Amino acid sequence: MLEVRNLKKSFGDKKVLKGIDLKIDKGEVLGIIGPSGCGKSTLLRCINLLEEPTSGEIFYNEEKYDRSKNLSNYRREVGMVFQQFNLFPHLTVMENITLAPLKLGILTKDEAVKAAKRYLKKIDLLDKADFYPNELSGGQKQRVAICRTLIMNPKVILFDEPTSALDPEMIGEVTKLMRDIKDTDFNMTMIIVSHEMKFIKDFCSRVVFLDEGKVIEDGTPNQIFNHPKDEKLQKFLSKINTI
Ligand SMILES: Nc1ncnc2c1ncn2[C@@H]1O[C@H](COP(=O)(O)OP(=O)(O)O)[C@@H](O)[C@H]1O
Ligand SMILES: [Mg+2]
Asked: What are phi and psi of 186, to 5 degrees?
């Protein structure tokens, strides 16, 4: 359903993505791993059309998309969750969650509030609806950010290191919500960038190893973690396993 073709992205002289080809099927849960600075966030930002690729193409359901075309339609289908949550600090939890569907005219105020309450109840934060983000813990903020994505009823969710900014004791509440999403909506396609190797190994149906802006290896979690072929991947894993 999602296809990236020969995607290249440079910032000035710096070549960050050097020709990425990826095909992701509906319902697939794809993990992206790789050393810091190898281009993982840039890839997700290009897929979400936050960043304009230098060259290459993004297809969604066989249709080509770029920033100049159907951006809001695409964003409805493809949601993104950020490491730093990106909640609006001046808006309450309720306002953060209902902002996009109201702005795009997808839901009426009543419908949006009702849906937001349903999500907040599900994550046990209904009593925080009128709180501001700075009154929440990191784990609570990230769960609110995920609800803000879910209310748009996306078909694909991109997660860019969703637990990296969290204290260890809060990681579980966010990964649990991600598991809930996967268990309730078997058709949800997810792409997750994370350094939580254990989570990626257990959670994903497929894993891609990126290095220096290229896909080096692509396989099942078992292939990638237990039988890595490429030397770069072997090195990357051995470093992680010794931490
Ligand atoms: N907006 C930008 N301007 C200039 N360089 C950037 C920008 N965004 C990312 N980079 C550079 O691109 C490289 C890859 O970054 P990033 O995609 O964030 O890597 P990762 O998420 O794998 O750690 C880094 O060297 C980073 O400094
Ligand atoms: Mg990153």
From this structure: -65, -20
